[in-house]
User: Which sequence fits this backbone?
């Protein structure tokens, strides 16, 4: 209910009768759009009590409003603001004239952004960019954990508000998880839980990069990371990514000749090209990091998903003097619906990043984080990863076979060692936007591929997200693609 | 399991026997801290398959490691890295020497921050700053909603990934909620769901304020808002807050004489003083906003909690040409464990704020937001607010009586019209840090009160958060305070 007690003001010294004062004020509230057509007014007894008036006065006011057609009595429901108001154009009740229909009058900052032209996502089939299959996500386990947490007697005391660095139980569980999978041996103080890997990238870069600082990224590069670095005013230097990952010779040459503030690297399944950094380049990079005391953001969003080949251990697990800020995510296990990522860094760095994070969103959802910690401890995440890896591996292989069979000349690719997408490069004469438009008419939504080339030269490539498609869907998608590439 | 396939490299051309190569590489992994004492190595069959070797070779390697005391055979469990390693100081297995124990070597940015000196939060009783009672939060309803959402067949398709502006169902439910409670009539395009009110403040200010822009805030002001504005490099002008709210004459005078970019205002229960903006000042402010086309962030975090007096409708509900960016939160209904807030603004503003938000954390938790939308639609939030308001009202009154009875000379206050805290000002000769230290010895954790005066003159005041304390706890807290203020 609206706060009628403050909205309706009675002036007892006025010569206008009180019931008319009430009626007039209701009319102006309706005219101003504060009370919308179809709204029920409070019962006369309730309003009389709120305004400390006799009920008869309120009834008289409502009679007046009804006589003027502003309100209508609806049997057994009460007084409703009329759907057809007596004035054709009350000032702002019309949606087109509400307080936010225009404006603001002041200039608005434009953050770097990219518009993703897409077909309507209402199509039956969607080819995404490398998302997990939400049907597999262990969200039942998660909901069960949540339920059990809120039933703990001490819940309200210890879990209502969490630290900016993240839930302590989750940070503790991360130690075992990172040691077991990545040989990364750290303490709780080195872990910060964030809203997905993106917030880790944003925070980490904010702690290192100032306006006009030189930073190195791959070419092409993950576009959301690029956007964050642009936002910080970084001077972005792009170094080619080939079949072995980023070109470390060029990186070293740049470090020799310029002040380089930071390097952003995706060690496994580079986005968009899915290339994994070779062991040799990895060693070379570690040398460069140590020699030039280079700050590095290592984005290892996809480490948990490996098929035919084992991952290399991250740069972060080697000896780098705390210069590699390691970024990862659980988002791909939780089906994208829950965005939890993490950042690993020296304690001093985490503390300062937490200070920045407090200004942005205070902290995470303690309940959601506690539930994930439980899933790490009870093995639910581990079981999910085993199951998902097996299935995604099969899907990768099937996708590869189907693409070779049905698009032999249209597109080329190399099967990635892991991850959720195949980097599909189309033959020069085939343009992805035209293919996407045609695929749309066959019931497949796919992107135009522009965003992969954000600030790089056009790539005519597409990440074929196989992981979220079951075998039947894979067959349908490739069949549609095959039809769409035909002249 | 660690990726042994890439960690152990066999050189068949080497003159060293393969089993010795394996043993040496394990030793160096243990020395480097990648494999910790207490870790179980993979079974010989598994490792042999991974490395494509005969199992006997692996067994020979394990025998060698065991002979050198690097690993220990644990019956029925397998080969464990020894807890007492043969070398006293392997390079970095010791936690004190892991890769993140020191560093980084590069300078780290310092965000504006405030250190809150507190007693240990392990005390039996905690006096907070105005938090809700998490025991009342309708989290059971929320968990039930989550469960039902993830069981929908179309869940994976429509809910796995959400837009940066927030879940569409929630934005739609917000329309009814805001119209019913605040007379705020808007469209979905005007709503953005954020991670609590703080993210709305951070985003909104980022869209308006650039380095060295003049902005007006109250004195004192909510410290987390101050921190966000400082971070953006704003030139913060502080205007006194008295019993009727911010001094609008001074605001107008400033607008006449300087270029003022933005005003930040808390209309209900100002933080920390709990003052509510008077109806007259509200009208005056609306005049100023229209006349000077002033950008305003209206932080109305506490609108839903009102007791003896009705709230005024927000500035946002009046005619302001889209210049008032309205910020609110559901955090106080959800017991602080789930951080969902919102921002209401013109569509153009929301779109640009969404572009910025994508760089920060891509978007919200679609599942969590969908569940809240269900709770708005099925009345769960409404029922919770009714119950909580009734209870918090009783607690406010009891807290007031207890404070008058037990601290008659030590502290003064005015009962707030709503919200979750009483602004308690201590007599000059009583210093809050000393009181807090003494209270700590009686088992009560409370703050030193420094943060309320962030960048203002010392206040010697404390927000007495009554809402989260039941009657028995209120009695205990006031009794301890009474003992703590005695000389």
Assistant:
């Amino acid at each position: 209910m609206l706060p009628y007690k403050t909205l309706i003001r009675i002036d007892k010294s006025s010569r206008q009768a009180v019931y008319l004062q009430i009626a007039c004020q209701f009319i102006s509230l309706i005219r101003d759009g504060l009370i919308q057509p179809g709204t029920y007014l409070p019962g006369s007894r309730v309003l009389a009590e709120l305004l400390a008036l006799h009920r008869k006065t309120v009834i008289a006011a409502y009679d007046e409003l009804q006589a003027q057609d502003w309100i209508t009595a609806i049997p057994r429901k009460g007084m409703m603001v009329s759907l057809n108001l007596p004035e054709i154009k009350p000032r702002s009740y019309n949606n087109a004239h509400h307080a936010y229909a225009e404006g603001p009058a002041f200039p608005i900052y434009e953050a770097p952004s990219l518009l993703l032209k897409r077909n309507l996502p209402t199509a039956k089939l969607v080819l995404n960019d490398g998302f997990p299959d939400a049907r597999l996500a262990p969200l039942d386990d998660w909901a069960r954990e949540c339920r059990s947490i809120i039933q703990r007697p001490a819940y309200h005391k210890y879990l209502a508000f969490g630290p900016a660095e993240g839930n302590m139980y989750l940070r503790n569980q991360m130690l075992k998880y990172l040691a077991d999978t990545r040989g990364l041996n750290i303490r709780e103080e080195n872990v910060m839980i964030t809203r997905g890997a993106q917030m880790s990238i944003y925070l980490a870069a904010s702690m290192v990069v100032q306006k006009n600082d030189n930073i190195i990224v791959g070419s092409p590069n993950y576009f959301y990371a690029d956007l964050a670095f642009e936002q910080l005013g970084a001077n972005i230097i792009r170094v080619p990514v080939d079949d072995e990952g980023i070109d470390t010779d060029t990186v070293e040459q740049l470090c020799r000749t310029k002040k380089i503030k930071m390097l952003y690297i995706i060690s496994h399944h580079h986005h968009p090209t899915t290339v994994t950094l070779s062991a040799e380049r990895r060693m070379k990079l570690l040398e460069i990091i140590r020699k030039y005391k280079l700050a590095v953001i290592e984005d290892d969003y996809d480490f948990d998903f490996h098929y035919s080949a084992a991952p290399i251990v991250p740069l972060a697990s080697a000896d780098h003097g705390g210069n590699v800020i390691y970024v990862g995510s659980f988002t791909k296990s939780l089906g994208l619906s829950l965005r939890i990522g993490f950042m690993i860094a020296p304690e001093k760095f985490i503390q300062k990043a937490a200070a920045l994070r407090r200004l942005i969103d205070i902290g995470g959802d303690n309940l959601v984080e506690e539930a994930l910690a439980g899933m790490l401890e009870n093995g639910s995440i581990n079981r999910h990863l085993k199951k998902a890896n097996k299935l995604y591996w099969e899907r990768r292989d099937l996708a590869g076979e189907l693409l070779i069979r049905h698009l032999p000349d249209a597109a080329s690719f190399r099967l990635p060692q892991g991850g959720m997408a195949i980097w599909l490069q189309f033959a020069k004469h085939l343009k992805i936007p035209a293919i996407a438009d045609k695929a749309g008419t066959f019931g497949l939504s796919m992107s135009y591929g522009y965003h992969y080339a954000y600030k790089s030269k056009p790539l005519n490539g597409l990440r074929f997200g196989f992981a979220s498609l079951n075998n039947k869907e894979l067959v349908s998608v490739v069949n549609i693609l095959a039809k769409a590439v035909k002249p």
